[in-house]
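Incident log, entry 3
Record: Ubiquitin-like domain-containing protein (137 residues)
Problem: checksum mismatch between cached and fresh output.
Input:
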Amino acid sequence: MGSSENNYRDESDLVKIASCLLKILTLGVMVFVLQALYIRVKRNKTTYFVQCDPTETILAIKQKLCSLIDQPVNDQRLILRATGDVLEDSKTLADQKVENDAVVALTLRKDGSEFEDVNIETPNDSFYSREDGSPSR
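Fresh output:
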């Protein structure tokens, strides 16, 4: 009976060890998934760098922007520049494949119903027109 009890105790210990390892792995995956990312929200000549988590909804991102731009969330529209897709308020960044350092265009509602067109100004390429890359004068 003594050896049978040892086997049971050993199996019980193995189950406990396996359970602990599973918890550690799960925690590691959760930490990986919840890593912060940054998105670049652009409108006209302005860029906002917004720190967020992949699990945040677009509505939560709009609420962060609301404090920066003083525009209600219902008057904001976010568009993923890489795909041109309008981001849906109820979906998360991960759901809509928004990755770290993504460029998101911000448009605002103009006359009560329509949103303005995307307008993101980029630096004038003719400024760097010399072959060596130095500014032209």
